[in-house]
Design brief:
Shape of chain A: globular
Shape of chain B: globular
Oligomer: heterodimer
Number of domains of chain A: 2
Structural class of chain B: alpha/beta
Low-confidence stretches of chain B: 18-27
Helix content of chain A: 25-40%
CATH architecture of the largest domain in chain A: Orthogonal Bundle
CATH class of chain B: Alpha Beta
CATH superfamily of the largest domain in chain A: Cytochrome-c3 Hydrogenase, chain B
Number of strands of chain A: 15
Radius of gyration of chain A: 22 Å
Strand content of chain B: 5-15%
Number of domains of chain B: 1
Strand content of chain A: 15-25%
Mean pLDDT of chain A: 94
CATH class of the largest domain in chain A: Mainly Alpha
Structural class of chain A: alpha+beta
Distance between the termini of chain A: 35 Å
Number of helices of chain B: 6
Strand order of the largest sheet of chain A: 1-2-5-4-3
Radius of gyration of chain B: 17 Å
């Protein structure tokens, strides 16, 4: 069949979400991307794989989101000189993904592209590629210093502030290089990859069942989104369908995760503008929710609650009612807190027009998730591709256009209320029946895709199975797309506003460092 | 402002006198205060270092600072620099890209110092294990006094780990 938006031959992939696969030659990649871009498709992910064990060379993979579904584009590359024409000029978000691919798989864009390393620091040499099948995993390379060519800014009065990787608070590690004049930020350059711990290689030693636990730990704050995406990918690859009751409970879990994260960040956003009242209040609410999560699902962050085939634990009637009651009380409290935030002149003065990302830039750079929706980029998988359990709920797309910290705060408040509504609607009509379907075996070369709107944005899991084992799995965090926007958001702001701007995005280091 | 004050009064003090749920822990928390006073004067200063976690343990360290636990009532506070710290709270398997940074942070912490490794990964390397990119458990890189298991360990467990480290009496010269 043909894709609705592009004149290329595609093959639909079994699974919960509309996904199509296609193969194009390296010579055609750029043209497809140019056309996709013109049709407003966004780049969801780019990764590479080693196919030398399958009597081929290497492969470049792209995931592009069209209105009709996700296109998984595969481009075979030669074994001898695996190069492809880069696409970072078409999709700027591809830049770091291409560099990560070069570091891990050793496939490179042709000349002219940014050839700096990204995930590789000094732990393995330039000519060793961890995601190649012949990479010796028992080998421990000597630690070399990470000599990274930062862009230097010169001029009268310009100086640099290097921050990290160890930060001043309880934050994940990463390096930020600020070039400033006085208090104003002229330029920010990020150096990430400090948390690279070989997740993708680890997956390749695992069976489809074993991978679930690791998927839930790619980025701990999004464990539900990853676990669901992983389960969806495995279910697609093995051709099974989870029971409807399990899908509804997954919806409850995903919205609980969204609520917990938004509550915590709203508290910290208060804290960062010296409104410690906000921190105390929101973290009181968050802690109450975490304790409820532990009581209902056995884990404060809902880790391992979603498993391939369904969910690990049922939600009985009485517990569902208790959940609705707690959320109802919480809703009233959040209404009060929102009006306090909005009437607090000091807080609003810090929020409004700080860290602004205008819609045009957000769209061009591919900013997604709630941060994208605060900058007028209207995408939400729950709305765009309504599959069960969201199909009947008519989820509301929250969107604003100002793109500043205040807009991101507002989106979070409104999403909190919407998630509460969704949970109440889901538990009121929990379908009866089983909560888990038995797993089946994957056929040779089976593929599956998981694509879930986590609290931060869209989480993708692209899985290629080899019997019951994982041949290649790429987990993709929305932070890949958002990190470069943070560099833009801080332009012209003062250094003391950086923590506030950073927190308003709250991006994952672990999810993007892999 | 009226609404803000009303909310504060309405909420009252939610801080629990000791980590729930049982009395043993209450005694533990009170002892913690005494031990900290004895060994560290008026406060225990903690520097958290994320050496490569999935960020799950960070969520619980944040939660430990919520009004429910309020570790400051025990004299525990988090500081911005290792040079101000008595104790390092280290999470994660140590990624090889963080190996040097962790070692330098440890070296920058004045003696005597304590190290508490947090989470299954900090204790054993966890699900990430040792690989080309991961050094595994924290004690593979710096000396560790106490390791707190859990994925992630609860705020109560983290507090208990801190107590154990402080009351062990062992000091690294």
């Amino acid at each position: 069949m043909k894709l609705k938006e592009l004149p290329i031959e595609v093959e639909p992939l079994a699974g919960a979400m509309p996904v199509f696969r296609a193969q194009v030659s390296p010579a055609e990649v750029r043209e497809v991307c140019v056309q996709a871009r013109a049709r407003k498709a966004r780049l969801v992910a780019l990764w590479g794989s080693d196919e030398t064990g399958r009597r081929a060379g290497y492969a470049l993979h792209l995931a592009l989101a069209f209105p009709s579904g996700l296109l998984w584009l595969r481009t075979p590359l030669e074994r001898r000189d695996p190069r492809y024409p880069g696409i970072a000029d078409i999709y700027p978000a591809a830049n770091r993904m291409q560099r990560a691919c070069a570091d891990l798989v050793g496939i490179r864009p042709e000349d002219g592209a940014d050839a700096r390393k990204w995930l590789r620091h000094g732990a393995w040499p330039e000519d060793a590629f961890p995601l190649r099948k012949d990479f010796d995993t028992s080998l421990r390379h000597g630690q070399k210093p990470d000599r990274y060519p930062f862009v230097t800014v010169a001029g009268e009065g310009v100086h640099e502030i290097p921050v990290g990787p160890v930060h001043a608070g309880t934050i994940e590690p990463g390096h930020f290089r600020f070039s400033i004049v006085g208090e104003k930020i002229l330029r920010l350059e990020e150096r990430l990859g400090y948390k690279h711990k070989g997740i993708e290689k680890r997956f390749e030693a695992m069976t489809l069942e074993e991978g679930a636990k690791l998927a839930g730990r790619v980025s701990g704050d999004s464990t539900v989104a990853y676990a669901w995406a992983y389960a969806m990918a495995v279910e697609g690859a093995t051709g099974i369908e989870p029971p409807r009751r399990a899908l509804a409970i997954r919806g409850v879990l995903l919205e609980l995760e969204r609520i917990a994260n938004h509550l915590g960040d709203l508290g910290y956003l208060g804290n960062d503008v010296a409104l410690s009242f906000g921190f105390a209040q929101f973290w009181r609410l968050k802690e109450e929710l975490l304790r409820l999560d532990a009581r209902l699902f056995g884990h404060r962050y809902l880790m391992d609650a979603i498993v391939p085939g369904g969910v690990a634990r049922d939600l009985p009637r009485a517990e569902a009612e208790a959940l609705v009651q707690v959320l109802e009380a919480m809703r009233r409290e959040v209404v009060t807190l929102q009006s306090i935030y909005e009437e607090h002149a000091g807080a609003q003065d810090r929020f409004i027009m700080t860290g602004q990302v205008l819609p045009e830039l957000a769209e061009r750079m591919g900013l997604g998730g709630f941060a994208g929706r605060a900058s007028g980029v209207k995408h939400d998988l729950r709305v765009d591709y309504p599959v069960p359990p969201y199909q009947q709920l008519d989820p509301r797309m929250i969107s604003h256009t100002r793109g500043d910290v205040a807009a991101r705060v507002l989106v979070r408040f409104e999403e909190l209320f919407e998630s509460m509504r969704l949970i109440e609607a889901l538990v009121q009509e929990l379908p009866p029946g089983e909560i888990r379907s038995p797993l089946a075996k994957a056929g040779a070369g089976a593929c599956g895709v998981g694509w879930v709107e986590g609290w931060r944005g869209e989480v993708l899991i692209a899985l290629e199975a080899d019997g019951n084992r994982i041949h290649r799995l790429h987990p993709h965090d929305p932070s890949w797309q958002s990190w470069p926007l943070l560099e833009h958001a801080v332009h012209g702001n003062i250094v003391p506003d950086f923590p506030l701007i950073n927190k308003s995005f709250n991006l994952s280091y672990s999810g993007a460092d892999l | 402002m009226y609404q803000l004050l009303k909310q504060i009064v309405k909420t009252g003090i939610v801080t629990e006198p000791a980590p729930p749920p049982d009395e043993d822990l209450r005694a533990g928390a009170q002892r913690l205060g005494e031990v900290i006073l004895k060994h560290f004067g008026r406060a225990l200063a903690i520097r958290h270092v994320d050496a490569g976690s999935c960020n799950g343990c960070e969520l619980e360290i944040h939660a430990m600072n919520s009004p429910f636990n309020n570790p400051e009532q025990l004299g525990i506070r988090f500081v911005a620099s290792p040079r101000h710290a008595d104790l390092l709270l280290v999470t994660g398997p140590v990624s090889r890209n963080m190996e040097i940074a962790l070692r330098r942070t440890w070296e920058a912490t004045p003696d005597p110092k304590l190290v508490v490794a947090i989470g299954d990964c900090g204790c054993t390397g966890g699900i990430f294990g040792e690989s080309y990119a991961s050094c595994g458990r924290v004690s593979n890189v710096i000396p560790v006094d106490v390791a707190v298991p859990g994925c992630p360990p609860t705020p109560t467990a983290i507090l208990q780990g801190i107590l154990t480290a402080v009351s062990s009496g062992r000091r690294r010269p």
